[in-house]
Design brief:
single chain, mainly alpha, 7 helices, rod-shaped
Length: 423
């Protein structure tokens, strides 16, 4: 469980680092986007104002100019010049704005306006009315785009704010869960090590008790054998002493008394030897047996004392081992229960952390999509060059159309003047 938790922690940590880097990038780009948006709104407002001004100029100055300028019967040089000035002003305003904003749509509008002003009078149509329609349509389109951009920005700001807040919340939850898992795993591992040490100590204690019991059994058996031998020997010696004392005891005393009474004055020749009891030898034997009896009794008492001490020591050690074993058994029991409880807690937290990680992954995916949608990406050099080339080409085409229109007007004027010269 600890290894799994550590693996999850490493993955979460890497994800967190990556998310923080993305957040920093998003923060910087969002500021740029906000600035770009404000600039876009300003340019759009200026664009709308310019188009409105152009439309107003057309309404105020061309109400009667169309019929007068394009009439097949009357051609007023003054009205025609005024219409050309107006046309030039409108075109210049639109083209200037297109160049400033690098707007392909405005450049295209300028081309359309130029074409209408150049060829719109064919068939008696009012070219200025067509230009007004183009301007009105463009204004409506730009206002719609402006509204859409404002709505999109509000949506992006709201979603980015909420998503980042949710991401931060999930990261905090994941970090707290990881800390809890690490703490619980460390504690559980420590408890398991302590349980293993206690079980090792208990095994050694059981082995020590078994060895002590074996030794106690062996020494007790030795004692029983020695005791039996000593008691049997002591009984035999005492019995022998009783027999010898009974046999040698009375006669020996009488002989000693006779020798003391008559030995001093009866100085007669030695009598012929006759059988006598070996009183002296018997006394020596008795003395020796008495020493043996004393040794046997001493050894028996010593054996009994040693046996009593050994039994007392064994009982004391056994009682101590029982107390120690009971204490260690309780420690093993409670530490094992606590370790299992911690493992269960780790499992629960890990499950919750997996859920949070899945949710965080989904939030990161959504945030990435939001950033792709809402955060402006810097153009590459190739993209900028291609856009500028396209704008330059469009402006050149517009300039070419304008130059063609100027040449056409000049030819028309020469033809008109030629028609007025009398033959």
């Amino acid at each position: 469980a600890k290894a799994t938790a550590e693996g999850d922690l490493q993955v979460t940590t890497k994800t967190l680092i990556s998310a923080k880097e993305q957040l920093e990038t998003t923060r910087s780009t969002c500021m740029q986007v906000a600035a770009d948006h404000e600039a876009t709104l300003a340019s759009r407002t200026e664009e709308l104002k310019t188009l409105a001004d152009a439309s107003k100029v057309l309404k105020e100055t061309t109400s009667g100019a169309a019929s007068e300028s394009y009439s097949l019967l009357q051609v007023s040089s003054q009205t025609q010049n005024k219409a050309e000035i107006v046309r030039s002003e409108v075109l210049m305003a639109i083209k200037k704005l297109a160049r400033q904003d690098h707007s392909a749509a405005l450049a295209q509008l300028a081309s359309k306006v130029q074409a209408v002003l150049k060829y719109g009078n064919l068939g008696g149509a009012d070219p200025f009315a067509k230009v007004k329609g183009l301007l009105t349509d463009m204004i409506a389109k730009l206002e719609k785009e402006k509204t859409a951009e404002s709505t999109e920005k509000a949506y992006c700001d709201e979603q980015l704010s909420q998503t980042k807040a949710k991401k931060s919340e999930l990261e905090d939850s994941s970090a707290k869960m990881s800390a809890k898992v690490d703490k619980a795993a460390s504690k559980s591992a420590q408890l398991k090590e302590e349980v293993a040490a206690l079980e090792s100590e208990l095994a050694a204690l059981v082995k020590e008790q078994a060895e002590a019991e074996k030794i106690r059994s062996e020494t007790h058996a030795t004692y029983e054998q020695a005791k039996a031998d000593l008691e049997q020997g002591l009984a035999g010696v005492r019995k022998a002493l009783s027999v010898l004392r009974e046999y040698y005891g009375s006669e020996s005393a009488a002989l000693l008394q006779d020798e003391k009474q008559f030995g001093s004055f009866m100085q007669q020749p030695a009598m012929p030897e006759k059988f006598k009891k070996s009183t002296g030898a018997g006394g020596g034997v008795i003395s020796m047996l008495e020493v043996i009896e004393s040794d046997f009794a001493t050894n028996l008492a010593k054996e009994e004392t040693e046996e009593s001490d050994a039994q007392a020591d064994f009982e004391t050690m056994t009682q101590k081992n029982k107390v120690t074993k009971a204490s260690k058994d309780q420690d093993v029991k409670y530490k094992t229960q606590e370790s299992k409880s911690l493992d269960a807690t780790i499992s629960e937290i890990s499950t919750d952390k997996d859920t949070v990680s899945s949710e965080l992954s989904a939030v990161n995916d959504y945030l990435a999509k939001l950033q792709e949608r809402c955060v402006a990406k810097p153009e590459t050099y190739e993209e900028r060059k291609a856009r500028r080339d396209a704008e330059i080409d469009g402006l050149k085409q517009a300039l070419s159309v304008l130059e063609d229109e100027t040449a056409f007007v000049q030819r028309k004027r020469r033809s008109f003047r030629g028609a007025l010269v009398p033959n």
